[in-house]
# Entry
Amino acid sequence: MKRKVILPGLLVILTGLIFIETVRAGAYLDSAHGNSAYGVKRSAAGFPADYIRGLCTHCHDTHASIDGVEPDPDGSAPSLYSIFYDSHVDQTDNFCFQCHTDVGSFQDGGGIINRSYSYRAGAWTTDTLNDVLESFSYPPADSDHNLDDILAFIDGQWEYTADSNPCNACHNPHSAQGDPANAPNSAKSSGTRGWPVSRPSLHDADDNNAWGLWGDEAGEKMSDYTANYQAPLRFTSNYEPDGSATQNGSNLTDFVTFCTDCHNNVNTIFSTALGRNLNTFDWNIEKHGTGLADDNIPNGNEPASCNRILAPYQVGACGTYVLSCTDCHEPHGSPNIFLARKEVNGAVVTVDTGTGAGPSGDPNSEWINLCNRCHNIAIGDARHDHPATIPPSPPGPGCNGTICHGPLGTQYELCTNCHNHGNGDIFDFLGPNLGPYGDQLF
# Structure
């Protein structure tokens, strides 16, 4: 009798455990790594070739072996996570780069192709970047997210530690999907979408399944963040990110909420490339955020800025538009400075410190190439071609003529002298050296 009572009970318990494990495994099986058709499959000397694709042991060695050697567990990342390589060494030497590279990849069949956002969302198909290691390896004159800086920032918060992989600040490797899924040489389409990111502030070190994807569910789209989002034009046809006719961001991850987990007006983030802390800003009042833009006309003779915006942005809605961070910036790296995309609103953009191709020979003045993708700023426009009609004397409190209005001649002022995240418009003074939101201009 006892056996008849106990066994059904055990069956119920075991069935429940199997069901739970199936649910927990679902996220990994749906991920790019766990997919049985194109997922992870390590190909390395001494590694069993018959291990099926998507198996956990392609990343995690059962006995914490490194290159076939069994080290004593010492608390370091390889031992801690049982991974086959150091979690992070430097900007170009990282566990993830052992597969996400086009040269010497451990992935069976060769390197893993991961294109830029300009390629995937903007359909800029002349892009030659084809792997993640390359996107993090742009020369100092260009730009990329610095992995050491990321690790230094996340260490000690959101359950990250010094042993964490900085790539995991934005990606849950057990859930991340390809976007487009299994179509590395294609731009995104409505039928090949995937969702690659997870919010850092929701990170759960104890349960990767609890740390879900961001953007894959209702409430996590740009259309949920704001009703005032307008998708940019795509390089080839229709709108970003997937080439469809959708314009309201209902098919785009809410990247504002995602990115402002780190980039906001509270966190201090040191930039090795800049040698300083990054500017802080509040997207709720930024003019490219939910703060209203305006028709600044400093002396009454210049055309209103809202009459100079380009399609698909409409004059009648000027002052209401909210942008997604990815409308202008690459997530990993860019040949342009400050991770500015190479394709924005349907055209190629160059903002390169090394060419000297700006109107006055100053390479930084190429910022107009980015701004002009949405704002029709003509050289000769009195608002921007300084000091054509703006006198060298200060027009308002806090102005410094030597910074903004001199010397007289053909000087072309840089867009970022007056406009960048955390700054407002130079003519919107509320006090000495203050922009409209109380931020320092200089």
